[in-house]
Amino acid sequence: MTSVLIVSSQSLQRLGLRMLLTDQPDLTVSGEATTGAEAVRMSAVLRPDVVLLDGRVQDTDGIDVIRRITHPPAFAATPGLSEAAARPPRVLVLTPDTHEQHAYAGLRAGAGGFVLESAAPEELVAAIRVVAVGDAVITPNLTRALIDTVRQQQPVRPATTGVGLDTLTERERDVLTAIASGWSNAEIAARLNIAPTTVKSHVSHILAKIGARARVHAVVFAYETGLVRPAA
């Protein structure tokens, strides 16, 4: 079962989300929070797999909430926890629009992805499942705008000097380039003529080496370091 903490100041939205999630055989609602501060406290106590966060929390900065949920020092410091229990929650942000500046800041803070409030119920449920296993989702019409924002926010560094990039093997660079191009593991395996299990292993090694929490963070890293450049 994947546990989900719902965070929204709107009671009707919380009710609708609870009804949707409790109807899924593999999802359970561990709690509901109405403010960002409450979400941070409840995340530390309940240790949900996913925090479904309304991006319009008003009591504190939403980006700071994401950062505090995904980087809680107390998790790793608690003795006797299993690896899964010691892992911080993953955050999926519900957003009313596709503001690329907010998405960029959220991803850098550790968010696992963004889903529009107007998304179909099945799309939201699928996104929660994707984020829960450590992958990431982002609304398709935000992808190019996000890439452009990455270029504007961070001066592109030479690919040979990016922090963590020099630790990657040539094959791992090939795989990272493919990830940043939007290829799935199956597509990477077919195009690079390697086994899918090998691709999965490469992806795990890449994320560990560059300190990325999910594929979408690796995409941002690839563009920031100049390994990949958006097409004109």
Automatic annotation (TrEMBL):
Occurrences of domain HTH luxR-type (ranges): 161-226
Entry keyword Nucleotide-binding: no
Residue numbers bearing the 4-aspartylphosphate modification: D54
SMART domains (alphabetical): HTH_LUXR (SM00421), REC (SM00448)
All copies of domain Response regulatory, residue ranges: 3-132
SUPFAM superfamilies per record: C-terminal effector domain of the bipartite response regulators, CheY-like
Keywords annotated in UniProt: DNA-binding, Phosphoprotein, Transcription, Transcription regulation
The protein's name in its UniProt record: Response regulator transcription factor
Organism: Streptomyces justiciae
